[in-house]
Write a structure and sequence with these properties.
Keywords: 4Fe-4S, Iron, Iron-sulfur, Metal-binding, Molybdenum, Oxidoreductase. It holds the Pfam family Molybdopterin. The chain is an alpha/beta fold. It is built from 31 helices and 33 strands. The strands form ten sheets. It has a six-stranded mixed β-sheet with strand order 6-5-18-17-16-7. Strand 26 and strand 27 form a beta hairpin. It binds ligand MGD (2 copies) and molybdenum atom.
Amino acid sequence: MSDDPSIEPYVGPAGGWGSLKSVEGILARENRLAAGNALLLKQNKHDGFSCVSCAWEKPAQPAVFEYCENGAKATAWEITSKRVPPEFFAGHTLAELRGWTDHALEAEGRLTHPMRWDKASDTYRPVAWEDAYREIGAELRKLDPESVIFYASGRAALETSYMWQLFARLYGNNNLPDSSNMCHESTSVALPESIGIPVGTVTLEDFEQTDAIFFFGQNVGTNSPRMLHPLQEASKRGVPIVTFNPLRERGLERFTNPQSPVEMLTGKETRISSEYHQLRAGGDIAAVLGLCKALVMADDAGAKVLDHAFIQQHTHGFADFQDYARKSDWAEIERESGLTRAALESAARVYAAADGVVLVYGMGITQHRRGVEAVQMLVNLLLLRGNIGKAGAGICPVRGHSNVQGQRTVGITEKPELAPLDKLDQQYGFKSPRKLGRNTVETCEGIIDGSVRGFLGLGGNFIRAVPETEAMEEAWPRLRLSVQIATKLNRNHLIPGEVTFLLPCLGRTEIDEQRNGPQLVSIEDSNGQIHPSRGVAKPAGPHLRSEPAIIAELAKATLPDSGKVPWDDWVADYARIRDAVAESLPESFHDYNARLRKPGGFPRARAARERIWKTKTGKANFIVPAGLVADPDAPALGPDVLRLMTIRSNDQFNTTIYGYDDRFRGVNGTRRVLFIGRNDMVRLGLSDGQTVRLTTAVQDGRTRSVGSMRVVAYDVPDGCCAAYYPECNPLIPLWHHAERAKVPAAKSVPVRITPDAGAA
Ligand SMILES: Nc1nc2c(c(=O)[nH]1)N[C@H]1C(S)=C(S)[C@@H](COP(=O)(O)OP(=O)(O)OC[C@H]3O[C@@H](n4cnc5c(=O)[nH]c(N)nc54)[C@H](O)[C@@H]3O)O[C@H]1N2
Ligand SMILES: Nc1nc2c(c(=O)[nH]1)N[C@H]1C(S)=C(S)[C@@H](COP(=O)(O)OP(=O)(O)OC[C@H]3O[C@@H](n4cnc5c(=O)[nH]c(N)nc54)[C@H](O)[C@@H]3O)O[C@H]1N2
Ligand SMILES: [Mo]
């Protein structure tokens, strides 16, 4: 953090010179300017590596520079010349390191050696790989399989993920929570009920053909900047882009392509959104109902805006939904959405005038108590005009981690019915467990109540990403076993269980040399496209192992009798893992190795694209929401309670904090800020620059608060405020999550704001 933070409005577009300057600055900081620039040319190329940042689709014909500012940051962060060797750990106890910031920890560089925590000295000490495997295996054999968790962050490749889920099931559980449990699980619950598949239905071509784009709760300029290119193209074609977001995000306003010499020279900007609706946090169900109501009413009046032929042939539940829309009350819609009827009718007109509409959404939709219903409401809107399963139309959940969608596809899920368990039993000659496993929230509950005894983390920073930070940090040391496979040091590594190992692995940018030569892996992107990724950088150290190699050795050490799995052959040649995946999941992965060689890769199966509806009714379903408010408790909370959205800055990847600037929001040198509207500031007697404390406004016997937050007057709708994740995670109660999906409701945390007298 800087001693002299500043907050000034940023006048530039997304992209532009700011972005270019930022990339070079980052490479220089990591001492990888020359090598880094060369490496970036291989990013998102068929013969190169798939970006480790976001999950946005990689085009089959990539541009020369097929990367963005934040993708470049992620690469630079991984290929840094800095290292965290055993000597570093010898000089710092974990107690001391717990006082470091998230930024300082990861900025130390790459982990280099397998380490075991030594309780007496409270330091990590180097351990031989063989000893680590043997000891972890012995610990796992002693534990009750149901008490152990196999967490995966969303970065591990399809091959790795397949091995991970198989290891968990051979060991004896379905405890496979992953980051999607905090992210798009609302999508994974909602879409199968609505349209029969758990993923989106669009491809990049649909963006080329669409007539309108509706954009909900996703911050494209920061979190999936490569998507700005199709948006820019669409905007240039005159396609309206209608945005619903409480905050005016720069990437959704205007963009200069940093890789176009002409645009850079002339300073030419493209406007992105044609209409920008600053709704209240959690107001989306109401806003979309407003759109639907306007359409239904126009149709009732004879305007023929609904696609009755599609509705008749392909959908179920229309009559009820139509009735619900007709009867809904504009006053309530206006109050909950924070938007006027006129604004919603205007957006509805744009929607009705377009033949094909693509609807994009992100965490602003999924991370609410009624996140599942919000997703289903978006589908309702699309169904009214047959906007699924035709060119230029469809639903586009923008996934987060680069392979988070793929992890689910190959069986990382706590829900046994979603994994090919019968197939696994047949292939590997065992009886896989059929009991429902633990998702992320249930894992946290188990850690707090002591029923979870062991935690294996395949990447990620679980303890920092989950809610209820204080109780989680207090409970973690009671775990018997804590094993983290990671590239960089983070807070979770500093909170040990009784037996604790930190295992360093190769990153995706690095050459993965195995017995049969250098290996490639594969990734499924947000639009369901599966493509290869081949590391090109020299590994960060000679002692690193690949994730597949680590999983294989852990599995062998834990389950000496898992003879039917050819772990060693798989590690020697990852193509053999792909053969096994193809056998387990032939619909999406038949001829896996052959199809992977094609530029652009191949698409996974998505029946809804063909208007085949694998739902219980055999049709696409209109689903009436249970209520219009994102947080069912909110109405009772009173006027001094605001809805806090926890959001990302432009200088972070989840819990990885690259730096303290959020360029597009004009914040420099700090992350401890609270964005709040002028009306609420006046109402609550707050002044710009004042230091405040946030306290969660729920009564469940626990006090949750975060102090030292600087008030920033910002364009935020009344009754809402925003601050950064993960700093605000201590405020989120564990039970405050999406109903059914259990995604923590990180975008509507009820908080009170009070002056924080003691702080600077
Ligand atoms: N550089 C970078 N890239 C990333 C990540 C990163 O941290 N850094 N994270 C990756 C991951 S794992 C994910 S899941 C994605 C996350 O990408 P996003 O889905 O963009 O997630 P957030 O940054 O949390 O921002 C959510 C957006 O929703 C808006 N919003 C908040 N509440 C509401 C609401 O109630 N309604 C509506 N309509 N909008 C709302 C916020 O103002 C913000 O613009 O990005 C991925 N890509
Ligand atoms: N309040 C609030 N909380 C949130 C969110 C929010 O918007 N608000 N967003 C949620 C979302 S969408 C997500 S996805 C989660 C993210 O939760 P996680 O996925 O658990 O967290 P990350 O910060 O992505 O994990 C970063 C760590 O991964 C490790 N790592 C990086 N690359 C590799 C690799 O190649 N292999 C291995 N083995 N390790 C690697 C590094 O050690 C790094 O420190 O957080 C969730 N939490
Ligand atoms: Mo995510």
